[in-house]
């Protein structure tokens, strides 16, 4: 009986902790959602409870966002640029990480560290020389400006991340594939990549998230409203001097963050799953 009560108490304690963390992490989404549908008078009245609707919900903030700004265009630009950057990152990072992971001796490790160190250079030091490169290429005020420059910080980190996944794959598996008649490239495509799906998905999410959050390069290289991304267009056109369009601002943030949050949750198990357990078996 005592043991059963202890087990029940442990389960309840775990659920309380999980529920507390879930509420803490979900609160920003709740705040954005309730602010998006509150009337302006309800938002600014200090006597009203900020956590509930004190007046009837309204769609005025969403109407303003969709009809008075280019939010849908910014969202499409962000999605298009993110997809292009993800493709470029995978094409460059996957083979480079595999080559470095299989490079014997200290050379591979040192070279990987050197590549990762380039990721640590802050964009505030690079946007001026990068702007000169973009101008020389004639890509100013186009989406290509950020599609070309974003891989400079997504590729180094992705290489460093994937090196850990590839090193975790036993070389015996590849040697067995070579004995069975596969070429080195065939073993890489048919064996290594399927085992490393968790790492590749992590790179995809990481790269796309960086594109949606990056501000300095997008602000520097793109000036016209129709070519801007969500991270630049929303704060520029919904914060005008000392006037903050809080309802529309929160609605834009919610709509931009929900897809990424959903993808994170859908593939969460793949991120934390074992990388080579099934292959070794």
From TrEMBL:
<feature type="transmembrane region" description="Helical">
    <location>
        <begin position="12"/>
        <end position="33"/>
    </location>
</feature>
<keyword id="KW-1133">Transmembrane helix</keyword>
<dbReference type="InterPro" id="IPR035906">
    <property type="entry name" value="MetI-like_sf"/>
</dbReference>
<keyword id="KW-0812">Transmembrane</keyword>
<keyword id="KW-0813">Transport</keyword>
<dbReference type="InterPro" id="IPR050901">
    <property type="entry name" value="BP-dep_ABC_trans_perm"/>
</dbReference>
<keyword id="KW-0472">Membrane</keyword>
<dbReference type="Pfam" id="PF00528">
    <property type="entry name" value="BPD_transp_1"/>
</dbReference>
<feature type="transmembrane region" description="Helical">
    <location>
        <begin position="74"/>
        <end position="99"/>
    </location>
</feature>
<feature type="transmembrane region" description="Helical">
    <location>
        <begin position="187"/>
        <end position="211"/>
    </location>
</feature>
<dbReference type="GO" id="GO:0055085">
    <property type="term" value="P:transmembrane transport"/>
</dbReference>
<feature type="domain" description="ABC transmembrane type-1">
    <location>
        <begin position="75"/>
        <end position="267"/>
    </location>
</feature>
<feature type="transmembrane region" description="Helical">
    <location>
        <begin position="142"/>
        <end position="166"/>
    </location>
</feature>
<dbReference type="GO" id="GO:0005886">
    <property type="term" value="C:plasma membrane"/>
</dbReference>
<feature type="transmembrane region" description="Helical">
    <location>
        <begin position="111"/>
        <end position="130"/>
    </location>
</feature>
<protein>
    <submittedName>
        <fullName>Binding-protein-dependent transport systems inner membrane component</fullName>
    </submittedName>
</protein>
<feature type="transmembrane region" description="Helical">
    <location>
        <begin position="243"/>
        <end position="267"/>
    </location>
</feature>
<keyword id="KW-1003">Cell membrane</keyword>
<comment type="similarity">
    <text>Belongs to the binding-protein-dependent transport system permease family.</text>
</comment>
<dbReference type="InterPro" id="IPR000515">
    <property type="entry name" value="MetI-like"/>
</dbReference>
């Amino acid at each position: 009986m005592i043991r059963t009560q202890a087990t029940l108490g442990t389960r309840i304690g775990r659920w309380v902790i999980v529920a507390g963390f879930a509420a803490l992490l979900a609160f920003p989404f709740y705040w954005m959602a309730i602010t998006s549908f509150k009337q302006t008078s309800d938002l600014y009245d200090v006597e009203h409870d900020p956590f509930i609707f004190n007046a009837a919900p309204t769609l005025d903030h969403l109407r303003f966002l969709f009809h008075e700004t280019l939010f849908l265009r910014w969202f499409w630009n962000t999605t298009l640029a993110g997809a292009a950057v993800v493709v470029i990152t995978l094409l460059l990072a996957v083979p480079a990480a595999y080559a470095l992971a299989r490079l014997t001796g200290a050379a591979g490790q040192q070279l990987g560290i050197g590549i990762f160190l380039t990721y640590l250079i802050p964009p505030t030091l690079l946007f001026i020389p990068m702007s000169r490169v973009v101008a020389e290429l004639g890509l100013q005020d186009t989406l290509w400006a950020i599609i070309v420059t974003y891989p400079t910080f997504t590729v180094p980190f992705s290489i460093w991340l994937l090196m850990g996944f590839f090193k975790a794959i036993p070389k015996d598996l590849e040697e067995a594939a070579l004995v069975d008649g596969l070429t080195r490239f065939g073993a890489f495509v048919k064996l290594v990549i399927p085992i490393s799906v968790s790492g590749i998905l992590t790179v995809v999410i990481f790269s796309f998230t960086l594109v949606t959050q990056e501000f300095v390069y997008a602000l520097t290289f793109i000036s016209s409203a129709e070519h801007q991304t969500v991270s630049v267009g929303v704060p520029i056109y919904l914060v005008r001097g000392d006037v903050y369009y809080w309802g529309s601002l929160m609605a834009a943030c919610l709509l931009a963050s929900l897809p990424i949050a959903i993808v994170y949750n859908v593939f969460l198990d793949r991120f934390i799953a074992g990388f080579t357990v099934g292959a070794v078996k």
